[in-house]
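Run log // design_07
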């Protein structure tokens, strides 16, 4: 992230969703105690296989997407 900002490619990097699950993630990144912020959204699905993110069903994809968004806003 620092390189992206230093290079001028971006002006700001958003951390809104990671802050929902780890309020101290920005401090950990600044202190360099963490290199990566966990992404919980990928695991917020109905299940694996047909019920997961790679399903062929548009209905299941929609349900999973709304569930992922809802997790952060409820």
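design_07 sequence
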């Amino acid at each position: 992230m620092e390189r992206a900002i230093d290079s001028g490619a971006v002006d700001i990097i958003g951390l809104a969703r990671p802050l929902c699950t780890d309020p101290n993630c920005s401090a950990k990144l600044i202190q360099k105690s963490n290199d990566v912020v966990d992404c919980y959204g990928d695991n917020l699905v109905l299940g694996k296989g047909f019920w997961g993110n790679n399903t062929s069903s548009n209905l299941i994809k929609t349900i999973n997407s709304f569930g992922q968004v809802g997790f952060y806003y409820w």
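The mean pLDDT is 84.
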